[in-house]
Amino acid sequence: MTSSILVVAEHQNGSVKQVTYEAIYAANQSTTEEHTIHLAIIGYEVGSLIDELKNSGVETIYSIDHEECQHYNPEVYSRALMQIIEQSQCEGVIFGHTTIGRDLSPIISANLDAGQISDVTAIHQTGDQILFTRPIYAGKAFEQKAFTRTPWVLTIRPNNIQAVEDTETTAENQVIEYNRPDSLRTVIKNVVQKSTGKIDLAEAKVVIAGGRGVKSTDGFKPLEDLAHVLGGAVGASRGACDADYCDYALQIGQTGKVVTPEVYIACGISGAIQHVAGMSQSRLIIAINKDPEAPIFKLADYGIIGDLFEVVPLLTEEFRNA
Ligand code: FAD
């Protein structure tokens, strides 16, 4: 029997997010049965996104393209997605563990009466069982879970699972007519947070994070320069956000974003457990702090004891000339 898995594509500013390609890879790993993978794209003027995704190895791209889907609205998106789920007859639905994925996936699970496993960082097969690994206790331990029945819903943490490469096959595009839901809310204005860079923090391969040690909004400037040279994104501790040095959109940690870049550079961050919860899975951690006793050094692969305002510009210069 062939099972069918639906991946929910995420996009921003007219581009497909990397986590979509990772979710397609995850879909291939999520079953031992013969399977087909389908993709759901919801948005407005999504033609170029369909073009971008048509060779990603999926069988069908179900798209709902409507002005009312331009901005994320849980009622509109969940209704639209349920239409696609019905059409695709899927047994599993996969989202990125992103702001939208975290909001939308439980609505879909409840609608489908499905079991959900969230924030998956790895997928393994043992015998004929598929095990999904996810962090627990703020990243201090991992658990492995399995689904015992269908339908199921999965969210995968960005930057942890391999992305699919383009294939020779071309997906069929099925346009689904948008059915306006009896929505209690409407989006009046989309407030775009001032961003320090073009790269999405959750998907960045390099993150330069600033803490209370940066001392001011201007104190983030050397971090932004380093992020620019390394092609990375700037993040922050809650200490820096609470002090109003930067926007809460940059906050990393238990109550902020979870990041798993290849390189994480913590500048003037003490390493409180709530911060560590959001970055401990980074592949390489570098800490710059003038206090040799700072807890962040216990976690760091490399530590630089020094003033970040001296160290960060030196690193920027070195990487620029490298
Ligand atoms: P501090 O702890 O004040 O550390 C500043 C560091 O900068 C110090 O180690 C100091 O030595 C160093 N420093 C100062 N000047 C320099 C310099 N010139 N050069 C180099 N180093 C310098 N925090 C988060 O980050 N994310 C969360 O999601 C989060 N969620 C929370 C949820 C709850 C329920 C609670 C109670 C707390 C939460 N916190 C969170 C807050 C957390 O406990 C810490 O207070 C916070 O992480 C501290 O931020 P910080 O490391 O920037 O500041």
Automatic annotation (TrEMBL):
It comes from the Bacteria. PANTHER family: ELECTRON TRANSFER FLAVOPROTEIN ALPHA (PTHR43153), ELECTRON TRANSFER FLAVOPROTEIN SUBUNIT ALPHA, MITOCHONDRIAL (PTHR43153:SF1). This is Electron transfer flavoprotein alpha subunit. Residues 5-188 form the Electron transfer flavoprotein alpha/beta-subunit N-terminal domain. Signal peptide: none annotated. InterPro entries: DHS-like_NAD/FAD-binding_dom (IPR029035), ETF_a/b_N (IPR014730), ETF_a/FixB (IPR001308), ETF_alpha_N (IPR033947), ETF_asu_C (IPR014731), Rossmann-like_a/b/a_fold (IPR014729). SMART domains: ETF. Belongs to the ETF alpha-subunit/FixB family. SUPFAM superfamilies: Adenine nucleotide alpha hydrolases-like (SSF52402), DHS-like NAD/FAD-binding domain (SSF52467).
